[in-house]
Amino acid sequence: MIEILVTSFPFVLRVMYLRWRGMPVTLYNVHRALFLWFVLALIVFFAVFYYYPKSYTGLVPYRMVPVVAEAGGTVTEVFVKGGDHVKVGDALFSIENSSERAKVEVGRRQVEEVEAAIVAAHMDVETAEASLAAAQSALKQAELTLADHLELKARGSAAYQHSQMERATSQRDTRRAEVDAAESKLATAKIQANNILPAQLESARASLKQAEVELAKTRVHSFVDGTVEQLTLSVGARAAQAAISPAMMIVPDRTPKEKGRIVAGFSQVSRTELYEGMAAEIACESNFNIAMTNTVLPARITRIQEPIASGQMAPTNRLMEPAERVKRGQIVAHLDLVHPEHQDLLVPGSGCLVQTYTTHLEGPLEGTVTAHVIEALGIIKAVGLRIRAWLGLASGIGLAGSGH
User: Fold this and answer.
1) What span, in angstroms and rounded, lies between the C-alpha atoms of 97 and 74?
2) In terms of C-beta distances under 8 Å and separation of at least 24 residues, what long-range contacts does 121-129 make, across chains too?
3) What is the pLDDT of residue 149?
4) Count of C-beta atoms within a 10 Å radius of residue 389
5) C-beta of residue 385 within 8 angstroms of C-beta of residue 379
């Protein structure tokens, strides 16, 4: 409409001229002005719509974190309610955990048993060392006795008796066997105290830790800072473990960069005119107001998504039919607000109108009068965006018959 009004000056001038000359205003007298009006309107329409892409599908994106129980069970307590703000580590709800607590208690008892066995094993080592020392002392005494008998034999003493020497030899061998047995017993005790039982203790501690982990899973905590929404859980209900039916949803707190981010889809034809850094204005429905304050906000394109979503493929049991993708996808552009103070004005999930502006033409038209004219036509789109915001306001309050 604005384009038609802007290009109507040939017809208006012609009518004013005819009136000034006192000539009648007939179709014959104004047909050239009408034709020129039509040509100018067509040129302006084409230039404005081509060089100033618009999107009606802009939105303010935000993330959602579904909350589910890692271990299934009956809910025993809910610590939050809808709308509460939680921080990382805050408890959300708990489930019945008598079985898990029993496993933890069993694990603790096993650890205590192994620790007591280690103490006893070290005492056994001390006992074995004492027994080895006694056996070695007895062996030394037997060897001295045998040496005495051997010396008597060598001197041919009358005190030498063959039976006593045999008895001393047997006693020495017995004491040597006792020393070997004591050494073996000491080695076994040391292996038990220093290797086997410590390994059993580590295994018992690992089992205890696993039981404590399973017990901790019965109390679900928040992993993000955010606001609890869509809380459907109640005491006595069964906590779901599948993300398709979460117990509640948490809307994470947005970073300053996320607060000023808008995503919009443009026609694929607009791909050649969109570029990073391109100036734009956004008008979000949640900001429409009768005073038009903070309704239209300046922004810039920061990133253009290269792939088009409608062309994505996933492994299935059949080949893709291009005819099934008749609906063409859009060029997705990410925009950021120019002024940080406007970030808090965006409502997460709000639908927005996005109007881009070509402020610098490159190529053959760069620096020409035509380029300056095309760049000046952006005022038409700026006015049009504000008119559409007014129409959206009228529609939203039910004045246009489509309010709810």
Assistant:
1) 9
2) 121/189, 121/192, 121/193, 121/197, 122/193, 124/189, 124/192, 124/193, 125/186, 125/189, 125/190, 125/193, 127/189, 128/182, 128/185, 128/186, 128/188, 128/189, 129/186
3) 74
4) 20
5) no
| Residue 257's pLDDT band (cuts 50, 70, 90) | confident
Please report, for residues 59, 265, 340, 387, the alpha-carbon distance to residue 298 in angstroms, rounded to integers and kept in the order given. 15, 17, 11, 16
Cα→Cα distances 275→53, 278, 354, 376, 386, Å: 11, 6, 14, 19, 23
Cβ atoms of residues 81 and 228 within 8 Å:
yes
Instruction: List the one residue out of 150, 55, 36, 37 whose CA is nearest residue 351.
Output: 55
Using an 8 Å Cβ cutoff, are 265 and 57 in contact?
yes
For 356-401, what is each residue's pLDDT tens digit?
998 877 767 777 887 878 888 888 888 888 888 888 888 887 765 5
Residue 242 has pLDDT above 90, yes or no: no
pTM: 0.69
**Paired tokens of 80:** 């939050």
- Report pLDDT for 158: 66
Taking the CB of residue 246, how many other CB atoms lie within 10 A of it? 21
Q: How far apart are CA 268 and CA 316, in angstroms?
A: 27
Which helix H or strand E contains 229, and what residues bound it?
Answer: strand 226-229
- Nearest partner of 284 among 274, 303, 299, 269, judged by Cα: 299
